[in-house]
Write a structure and sequence with these properties.
The complex is a heterodimer. Chain A is built from no helices and 11 strands. Chain A has strands spanning 4-7, 10-14, 19-25, 32-37, 43-49, 55-58, 61-66, 71-76, 85-93, 96-99, 103-108. Helix content of chain A is 0%, strand content 59%. The model of chain A has no long low-confidence stretch (mean pLDDT 95). By secondary structure, chain A is mainly β. Chain B is an all-beta fold. In chain B, the strands form 2 sheets. In chain B, strands 2, 4, 5, 6, 9, 10 and 11 form a 7-stranded mixed β-sheet that branches. The mean pLDDT of chain B is 96. The chains are: A mainly beta, B mainly beta. The interface between A and B is medium-sized, with 21 and 25 residues.
Chain lengths: 109, 113
């Protein structure tokens, strides 16, 4: 059965620090998505990664995909309070999307 | 604002009842996806339609069904409702099929009493 595991599930960071969220999955896929969800809100698409070695950056966030290791990372650089949210990865397996449990990020001043 | 609309925003109903959730995709998007989010199960993909045809099925119960109409709006029908069906239901749309960025609607919060 396909498993998508995110870690950590909870992350408390100081502003200005760097950190990485990991997304491991158990079945071959070359399509992975990252989303952000603010409390009480819907999901916002952050990145779509479609091939091995794909790297995308937007502002302080950078996502990468290693399909051989079945691993995606979401790197946060110089965190700011506005990045506080829950981040989900999702893996596309034959058009069936499976989500990780989410990483709740809190950025403290 | 993603451009995806969902109605209603909130729905409270009783066990055993049937409800219909509605989704209008962004202008020009052909794909519609339905998702369920609950504390117990997390985020789950239910079903995808592309230009009126069912494209993919996820963890959708037999009591649930969906369709996409010629004007591309979609409806998710939930019947014989149980307490455990209480959740947030999101729809999303994309230009093409999978591999495209998905834009999520604001969601419908369903409470089954």
């Amino acid at each position: 059965e396909l498993k998508v595991e995110q870690n950590p599930l909870f992350l408390s960071m100081q502003e200005g620090k760097n950190y990485t969220i990991y997304c491991n999955y158990s079945t071959t896929s070359d399509r992975l998505y990252w989303y952000r969800q603010d409390p009480g809100k819907s999901l916002e698409s952050l990145f779509v990664l479609l091939s091995n070695g794909a790297v995308k950056q937007e502002g302080r966030l950078m996502a990468s995909l290693d399909t051989k290791a079945r691993l995606s990372t979401l790197h946060i650089t110089a965190a700011v309070h506005d990045l506080s949210a829950t981040y989900f990865c999702a893996v596309d397996i034959a058009n069936d999307m499976r989500f990780g449990a989410g990483t709740r990020l809190t950025v403290k001043p | 604002d993603s451009g995806v609309t969902q109605t209603p925003k909130h729905l409270i109903t009783a066990t055993g009842q049937r409800v219909t959730l509605r989704c209008s995709p962004r202008s020009g998007d052909l794909s519609v996806y339905w998702y369920q989010q609950s504390l117990d199960q997390g985020l789950q993909f239910l079903i995808q339609y592309y230009n009126g045809e069912e494209r993919a099925k996820g963890n959708i119960l037999e009591r649930f069904s969906a369709q996409q109409f010629p004007d591309l709006h979609s409806e998710l029908n939930l019947s014989s409702l149980e307490l455990g069906d209480s959740a947030l239901y999101f729809c999303a749309s994309s230009v093409g099929g999978n591999g495209n960025e998905q834009f999520f609607g604001p969601g419908t919060r369903l409470t089954v009493l």
